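Appendix B. Raw example, untouched.
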Amino acid sequence: MTFEHLSAHAIASELGDRIRTARLNANLTQKALANKAGLSLKAVTNGEKGKSTLESMIAILIALEITEQLNYFIPEQQISPVQLIKLRGKKRKRATSSSEGSTQSKDTAIW
């Protein structure tokens, strides 16, 4: 499945379905998974609906022993050589704002 044209809600639902499948493959009830993850039953059911907090989702992944999947979910990002030269060895902490998104002209006076 590709996620390119899906909404955030649709992606969250798909991730919830995958968590449910992983739980069933591990032969765990929602209550057993909640106990193993140190979460409430509601947190697990919300996770399977795609309505989980990030911290709860990570606790579920740890309990299901599938945290290695996070490397595929969000691979570690490397800084481009051009950015390294611009930063002169400093670590980037912020993105620069683009002038394209600005609605005010530089010639317009601000009151």
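End of appendix B.
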